[in-house]
Design brief:
By secondary structure, the protein is an alpha/beta fold. It is built from eight helices and 15 strands.
Length: 316
């Protein structure tokens, strides 16, 4: 099979890693990168034995697939140009700024028969992939995500920066669609929301409590799933998973055992899945529709906090 020609638009902190993964895949040729900083672009291009561009129009006829890893405000503009050129897209999260932009990209990709995948990388974490097929009917999910403050990624609030990962995950695992949302949060260091907690009630009665903070003194990525009399715990950082069940005896207590997982490079898994979808003309696990749904939840949570809405808000 002929190698797919891959490229990366935006060779910043995360974009460089995308380029490295493409360069390491046997069925892919890293055909180039687009970086507005010509010095950085040339440095990375030399390192990965590829070509650097500053002009997107000169780049698009040299690639079949691209990762778009630029500030969120540019996602719609660049993704639209790439899709119109007939190039398949892995678009980093959050998908777009507005719902209208997301809808336009989904419709355009459908008309052009283009694979549009959104970069919700936690879907490929072994701690999640090993638990998901074991679930029967989750009734309560608890997600906690925190990180020390860093200037990087402060172009969006913590809901769009960190929490959106868990909004996508709990939606996928609930087995239902969101019904209503309540949220509270605060701006502490930046002008945007830095810490947030949200409760999501799904149409099937499942409830998810999701918290996120980017001003924590520690990094934490945990998900707990209560499924009947069983508790599953996923630690995204260690990629470990655990199952807890009620033990013998009159006093209720959980007995916890570890579920075997194999540590993996989740970004490589995500990109490999994207390439496979292009090669086999199949639907991504996280298509534009899933990316849009996570964005819709994130925007509703943001709206509730910014407008000091204390009660539940219906999800529409």
């Amino acid at each position: 099979m002929k190698k797919l020609r891959a490229g990366v638009i935006g060779a910043g902190y995360l974009g460089q890693f995308h380029a490295e993964k493409y360069a390491g895949l046997p069925n892919v040729e890293l055909a180039g990168i687009v970086e507005k900083d010509p010095v950085r672009g040339e440095q990375i291009a030399r390192k990965l034995n590829t070509e650097a561009f500053t002009d997107l129009s000169r780049f698009l006829d040299k690639v079949d697939v691209v990762s778009i890893v630029v500030p969120t405000i540019l996602h719609h503009e660049i993704a639209k140009q790439v899709i119109e050129a007939g190039v398949h897209v892995l678009l980093e999260k959050p998908m777009t700024v507005t719902m209208e932009q997301a809808d336009e990209l989904i419709a355009l990709a459908s008309r052009k028969n283009i694979v549009l995948q959104v970069g919700h990388i936690e879907r490929f974490n072994p701690a999640i992939t090993v638990i998901q097929p074991l679930l029967r009917s989750p009734r309560y999910l608890q997600a906690e995500r925190s990180a020390p403050f860093t200037v990087r990624c402060t172009d969006v609030n913590v809901v769009l920066d960190l929490m959106i990962h868990d909004l996508d995950i709990v939606s996928a695992l609930s087995g239902s669609t969101p019904l209503k949302v309540s949220a509270a949060g605060s701006s502490i260091i930046t002008r945007e929301i830095d810490a947030v907690m949200a409760r999501i009630v799904f149409a099937n009665g499942c409830v998810a409590d999701v918290t996120a903070s980017r001003i924590s003194d520690e990094k934490k990525r945990l998900l707990r799933i209560f499924d009947g009399d069983t508790l599953y715990t996923a630690d995204y950082q260690t990629q470990k998973a655990f199952v807890s069940r009620r033990g013998p005896g009159d006093v209720p207590e959980f007995v916890t055992t570890e579920i075997a997982t194999e540590r993996r490079d989740t970004l490589r898994e995500e990109i490999t899945a994207f390439i496979s979808c292009v090669e086999h003309t199949s639907r991504p696990t996280v298509s534009g529709i899933e990316g849009r749904n996570a964005l819709a939840l994130a925007r509703l949570i943001t709206h509730s906090i910014e407008n000091s809405i204390a009660e539940f808000v219906p999800f529409t």
